[in-house]
Amino acid sequence: MAMQLRFCLVFLLSAYLVTLPVHASQQCANLLFATGYDGKPAAGAKAVLVEAIQRGEPVRIGWELDFDGDGEANVSHWSAAAFLSVAQGEAFAQVSAVQRQRPRGGGRIEFADAFTEWRGMLGTDGSLQGAFSDGSPFPDDLSVRITWCGALPPRPQWVAVYRNGIDGEALEGSKDALLAAIRAGQPIQIGWGFSAERDGKALSVEHTISPEFLTIVGGDHVAAQLPEHIAQQGYVNIDRALFDDGAVMWRGLMTTRGTFDAIWVNRATGEIVRRYPQRAMMTWYAQHPAASDTPPLAVPGGVTRDKARAGDVVPR
Hints:
Layout lengths: L1 H9 L5 E2 L13 E5 L5 E4 L1 H9 L4 E7 L9 E13 L2 E10 L1 E5 L2 E4 L5 E7 L4 E5 L11 E7 L8 E6 L5 E4 L1 H9 L4 E11 L2 E9 L3 E5 L3 E10 L17 E8 L3 E8 L5 E8 L2 E5 L30
Antiparallel strand pairs: 1-5, 2-3, 2-11, 4-5, 4-11, 5-6, 6-9, 7-8, 9-10, 12-13, 12-21, 14-15, 14-21, 16-17, 17-18, 18-19, 19-20
């Protein structure tokens, strides 16, 4: 009877209510912090949550109640954090007042007969406090699991998904992950560099660049054209990090086979001033790696010659 009364007292809907078979933190796209039923940290980082609050970012908070002590949620609530406070490294969130409600069986929830509001506050210390407008007592020994979720989408971060050696051998990551990210239209970057000793002096240089044209060849290899820039007087000597001839532009073409074709072109005359074939270890980055089952873009008949414009073809 006591458990049923407690269940009625705290079965409240904030913004909406969802009963979840899994931990609410697994439903959160931008998890900041979570505590378990024991009140101890279970996921995320408290410092990340506090920083988000101090930046003024909106936060949503979910809490799950375990009435029978079996470690599984009997009911789950989500609400926007209406009022946030930080004290000595702990964060506390008040949620907006809601009308008291009761379960009616069969998955139904109804408002209580008399108008009574409930207000609640949850903390990163695992605490849940509540107060009813009619003065009814609120249990202080509830088993609660709390999830703090950023209401803004997570900031994109570059992730190294694949690294090939100078001969095209796979060194780290997954080429399938790279191919899937490209097929999904995700942003890609490439990083490469070298270190050496010349005349008793250590040299090192590291580059990253966003390719402007990507091609998946044969469903297994990637070719990437790199955007042009005015050639520099030097790349490994900081004192020579100066523009060279303003008419000469550098362009590059890299592949997951380790090939790296670099050319310097005089844009005024069209003359190739220099060509420097290389081989390079390349790290390929994606912002949001896609699932490896992303469908290929190469399909039979995907591209055909425009027969209506056959007369416009200029042979090589």
